[in-house]
From TrEMBL:
GO molecular function, one term: catalytic activity, acting on a protein
Ranges for domain Aminoacyl-transfer RNA synthetases class-II family profile: 130-430
Gene3D superfamilies xrefs: Bira Bifunctional Protein, Domain 2, Nucleic acid-binding proteins
InterPro entries per UniProt: Aa-tRNA-synt_II, aa-tRNA-synth_II, aa-tRNA-synth_II/BPL/LPL, Asn-tRNA-ligase, Asp/Asn-tRNA-synth_IIb, NA-bd_OB-fold, NA-bd_OB_tRNA
PANTHER family in the cross-refs: ASPARAGINE--TRNA LIGASE, MITOCHONDRIAL-RELATED, ASPARTYL/LYSYL-TRNA SYNTHETASE
UniProt family annotation: Belongs to the class-II aminoacyl-tRNA synthetase family.
Pfam families in the record: tRNA-synt_2, tRNA_anti-codon
Biological process, per Gene Ontology: asparaginyl-tRNA aminoacylation
Protein name stated in the entry: Asparagine--tRNA ligase
Gene: asnC
The organism's taxonomic lineage, starting at the top: Bacteria, Bacillati, Bacillota, Bacilli, Bacillales
Amino acid sequence: MKTTIAKIGQFVEQEVTIGAWLAGKRSSGKIAFLQLRDGTGFIQGVVVKADVEEEMFQQAKNLTQESSLYVTGVVRSDDRAPSGYELTVTKIEVLHEAKDYPITPKEHGTEFLMDHRHLWLRSKRQHAVMKIRNEIIRSTYNFFHENGFVKIDPPILTGSAPEGTSELFATKYFDEDAYLSQSGQLYMEAAAMAMGRVFSFGPTFRAEKSKTRRHLIEFWMIEPEMAFVEFHESLEIQEQYVSYVVQSVLKSCQLELKTLGRDLSKLEAIKAPFPRITYDEAITFLHEKGFDDIKWGDDFGSPHETAIAEHYEKPVFITHYPTSLKPFYMQPDPNRDDVVLCADLIAPEGYGEIIGGSERIHDYHLLERNLKEHNLSLDAYQWYLDLCKYGSVPHSGFGLGLERTVAWISGVEHVRETIPFPRLLNRLYP
């Protein structure tokens, strides 16, 4: 019976065959222990010298790391094994013998591992992170489909930028200037006027020369937009979505979270509702914590966000930022013209902002004025102005950064481990 490691529990006390790679091995005089992986999981294969031919036992002892194999054996229950099972091996067929595999059990530097990212992905830790990323993506689709959202795919090449062009990658689109998208938001607003509630999931690009552990040059965003949804209702949807995703990972990725040494109790606490503080309250709080350097009108840096987040066990919304800090499309607070109806969701444990969102402007004249004040071309944004010209409604949306969310939920320190092939300030290889 041919199967996979993920399904091996269905065949206890039966003989099965799996296609696998040798992740590692150790042996004594009488037993060889093979650490096997097949992409679906990891399992230990045990070769007992007394139970097999001498030639096969020597074959097992001489296997090299990352050689590909067909391994046949009897499935045994084993409470000590992470997966709950191990394989008593009866036959090994070598498909390809790997020689001098560069990533060995010894310590390697970050740059070395990044240069060998195509191989580093095979490690147990990286496998766990990618499985958690996959579950976040799966549960994202489930949440939005269950709540009546339609998936829409915005363009990656654009002729304008929702937040200006200073941090965009420019290219030529035949005889025109074009940019790699930093957000699909404006197009998603157009889609929301057609479909009601929509979401996108795709790559975005920021030409920001940052080297922090929270930044990537290419990353993935989930961007919902919702017609007839005002600011506070949007916050409720955001906290429901994040709670849903975290609880889905807890349910489906227990083994992966344990592999990473994640404190599960911190994730178990992530359930809506989330605390909310205004930007004004955040400034007061930071002053009380000794951050005398920050003043009203300044944006928060990583130390500020971390200090605020440490005060809560759940993600916290910081709302009503100064108008001067935010893009042109955000709806002003009807009671104050110096702040907008927006919120950043700050993850616990120092992971920073994972969501930015707002109610969007739906008044034609206000949007036109803001475009002029930001020195943006009215011709380039005429199609966006049309949304306020023909059947405008109150509407809201937000964007969640996938890699930061993966880092927070999985507990890894740097976002470079949360995407298969990271693009960093000085890295375009492999």
